[in-house]
Amino acid sequence: MENGTGVKKVKIECVNISKYFGEGKDRIHVLDNISISVYENEFIVVLGPGQSGKTTLLKIIAGLYKPSSGKVYLEGKEVEGPGPDRGIVFQRYTLFPWKTVLGNVEIGLKLRGVPKEERRKIASYYINLVGLSGFENHYPHQLSGGMKQRVGIARAYAINPKVMLLDEPFGQLDAQTRYLMEQETQRIWQQEKRTVIFVTNNIEEAVYLGDRIVVLDGKLPGRMKKVYKIDLPRPRDYTDPAFLELRHSITEDTQLLL
Ligand SMILES: Nc1ncnc2c1ncn2[C@@H]1O[C@H](COP(=O)(O)OP(=O)(O)OP(=O)(O)O)[C@@H](O)[C@H]1O
After folding, report:
1. Secondary-structure breakdown of the chain: helix, strand, coil percentages, each rounded to the nearest 5
2. Which segments constitute the ABC transporter domain (predicted)?
3. In angstroms, what is the span from residue 12 Cα to ligand 1's centroid?
4. What is the CATH number of the domain that holds 19?
5. Looking at the 3D structure of the chain, how many domains does it have?
């Protein structure tokens, strides 16, 4: 995170982001004055209950929505639309059903005109990183939910984005698979550091993964309620007393909201 001079480099900066949808009496105020600086290689978790504007915030950072006011900067440059410098993993599986695992992971590289041999090499590396070696020629319908999200993560990594944006990627998985995927996410991130913004409504997941947790208020418009710094060593352990204590105190702090 530090650049050798002890100064942390800001990767993403959200400045006074507010967002409204609709007009007149149908106008909904979804986000209010959100400001966050995310440092290089930091793992930021945005934690909030359903309908607190988390996905909207992520889509604004992705450039898929424009903020009603405020600005997002990536490495100091204003975000004006989507781009390959941001890799996105959504809650719902967004794989192409007619493409194999390899085809799905390669797609971003193919679109950028990376030659076949090179893209195969890059895709194979990331398929291996997410633990799917041997499944290159499988189609999405042959994969479990956890495996599909692994493909989504490999695909996002393969384009070598500056920032990874993950929107409740494990929200659809059963509890067991979710734990496994959280552990895998931590392992992958420790192996291949990236700046990550990870959205969830799950406190335990937030404490397990985050360097910092940004808590959004429970009712619309989403406002920043509190920011926690999580200094627990990695790999983290769900049963470690320090982990449980933090989880407990964040739950107590936010129980009216979550
Ligand atoms: N494209 C849109 N058009 C109109 N309203 C929208 C749009 N996207 C989001 N909203 C409004 O914003 C509110 C918050 O949605 P958002 O998906 O950002 O919240 P969230 O915290 O991610 O919720 P969840 O955890 O349930 O996915 C929604 O209730 C909806 O009213």
Report:
1. 35, 25, 40
2. 12-243
3. 22
4. 3.40.50.300
5. 2
The interface predicted TM-score of the complex, written ipTM, equals 0.95
CA of 80 to the centre of ligand 1 (A): 21
Helix or strand run (H / E) with residue 17: strand 10-21
Dist. CA 111–CA 254, nearest whole Å: 43
Running DSSP on this structure, what letter comes out for residue 252? H
Instruction: Identify the residues whose C-beta falls under 6 Å from ligand 1.
Output: 21, 28, 30, 48, 50-56, 201
Distance 184 CA to ligand 1 centre (A): 28
Render the burial of 213-250: b for 16+ CB within 10 Å, e for the rest: bbbbbbebbbbbbeebebeeeeebeeeeeebeebbeeb
Element (H, E) at 228: strand 224-229
Q: Which domain holds residue 129?
A: 95-160
Chain segment 149-207, per-residue pLDDT in tens: 899 999 988 998 999 999 998 888 888 888 988 998 999 899 889 999 999 999 999 99
Look at the pTM and tell me if it is higher than 0.80: yes
